[in-house]
Specification:
The structure holds 2 protein chains of 2 kinds. Chain A contains 6 helices and 7 strands. Chain A is of the alpha/beta class. Chain A has one domain: Response regulator (Rossmann fold), CATH 3.40.50.2300. In chain A, helix 2 links the parallel strand 1 and strand 2. Chain B folds into 2 domains: 145 residues, Rossmann fold (3-Layer(aba) Sandwich); 55 residues, Orthogonal Bundle (Arc Repressor Mutant, subunit A), CATH 1.10.10. Chain B has 10 helices and 5 strands. In chain B, helix 3 links the parallel strand 3 and strand 4. The chains are: A alpha/beta, B alpha/beta. At the A-B interface, helix 2, helix 4 and helix 6 of A face helix 1 and helix 5 of B.
Chain lengths: 156, 233
């Protein structure tokens, strides 16, 4: 029984890690997108299906690529991330797509704005290496994940 | 023998992106990564890299002062400054500090490899805007742009600039003393000297000075554009 329980646990854990997640990366800096990509592609089953460099391109790629999670910067040209998030929510909410905001702004006010715009998660860029994987995992399962620079909050 | 590159940026995600970009190039290796200017200077002393890539907006010691300090230690260091803006003042300060390369962060994926190649061949690399500014200075004045064209500011010592940055980042005198391994009294003396030299009267004034003079950089929130009927509480 003991060994069965252990085996069952491992299987469940593996299946959780292998859950396929299709991710769209949106940031106006290609170097940041590259950094995010190297982090995310280390996780088995996760796939970066596309990249966009501003909010308008993000809306187009959401329509064409049907990602599960959009990792979205805030300060971008043409259409900023908050406005893009609102528009994505208006058009895509029934599909179950979730938005994770990854931004330079270590600010509770900006975090509120992002959540009000419909984001399911909020991570500060300076701590993306610490928080990004947990955040994508949480929002891909439709759980809230918010973390300012001092650390994640108990809001999952 | 491989070209050894030291990266200094406070965002790990940016360092990862830069690493991925640079390590695709055969014959180059990232020999170290620093997350602030002080760490970059210490690592450069130990690792003696061939090229150092320095972000301007780093905590504790910004990229311009880091460049100055690196070149004070060893004038043969070759430094590329990474910046989010190429304003005239930033360009002047970067050139004045001794940077041999100047790359906009937004263009790093396109320009950084070319910049490192240029420095590897003992050449310099600047954005078209820097080239225009240098050329305009040469044509208008008959000489390259110089420090004298910058605003006529009182000169702070390297240590005073460092204290200014730490105070403007919100640290108390005691915290500054810990970071710089000085006594609180010494920091207070530096603080008084800075305020007197710059004719400032409060920490708020000091923060404004630090922002205006690129000692610290701030990220502005986006202009939120909403339909007029949507009011925000």
């Amino acid at each position: 029984m003991k060994s069965f329980a252990k085996g069952f646990h491992e299987t469940a854990s593996e299946s959780k890690n292998l859950m396929a997640v299709r991710i769209l990366l949106v940031d106006d800096h290609p170097v940041v997108r590259q950094g995010l990509r190297t982090l995310l592609e280390g996780r088995t089953g996760w796939e970066v299906v596309g990249e966009a460099s501003d909010g308008i391109e993000a809306l187009e790629k959401v329509q064409s690529l049907h990602p599960d999670v959009v990792v979205l910067d805030v300060t971008m040209p043409r259409l900023n991330g908050l406005e893009a998030c609102r528009l994505i929510q208006q058009k895509q909410k029934p599909s179950g797509l979730e938005v994770l905001v990854v931004t330079q702004h270590d600010s509770p006010q900006m975090m509120r704005e992002a959540l009000d715009a419909g984001a399911r998660g909020y991570v500060v860029k300076s701590n993306a290496a610490r928080d990004l994987l947990d955040a994508v995992e949480a929002v891909s399962q439709h759980r809230l994940f918010t973390a300012l620079a001092r650390g994640p909050q108990a809001s999952r | 023998m491989k070209l050894r590159i030291l990266l200094a940026d406070d965002h790990e995600i940016v360092r990862r992106g830069l690493c991925a970009l640079l390590q695709k190039h055969e014959g180059w290796e990232v020999c170290g990564e620093a997350s602030d200017g002080r760490e970059a200077v210490e690592m450069a002393k130990q690792l003696k890299p061939d090229v150092i890539i320095v972000d301007i907006g780093m905590p504790h010691l910004n990229g311009l002062d880091t460049t100055r300090r690196l070149l004070e230690h060893d004038p043969h260091f070759r430094v590329i400054v990474l910046t989010i803006t190429d304003s005239d003042q930033i360009i002047r300060e970067a050139l004045d500090a001794g940077a041999r390369g100047f790359v906009l962060k937004s263009d790093a994926a396109r320009d950084l490899v070319s910049a490192v190649e240029a420095l590897q061949s003992k050449r310099m690399f600047f954005t078209p805007r820097v080239n225009d500014l240098v050329l305009a200075g040469f044509l208008e004045k008959g000489h390259a742009i110089s420090r004298t064209e910058a605003p006529n500011l009182p000169t702070l010592t390297a240590r005073e600039r460092e204290v200014t940055q730490l105070l403007a980042e919100g640290k108390s005198s005691k915290e500054v003393a810990t970071v710089l391994n000085l006594s609180t009294k010494t920091v207070e003396t530096h603080r008084s000297n800075i305020m007197r030299k710059l004719s400032l009267h409060s920490i708020r004034d000091l923060v404004v000075y630090a922002i205006k003079n690129n000692i610290i950089q701030i990220q502005m929130p986006p202009q939120i554009q909403r339909p007029t009927e949507t009011t925000v509480a």
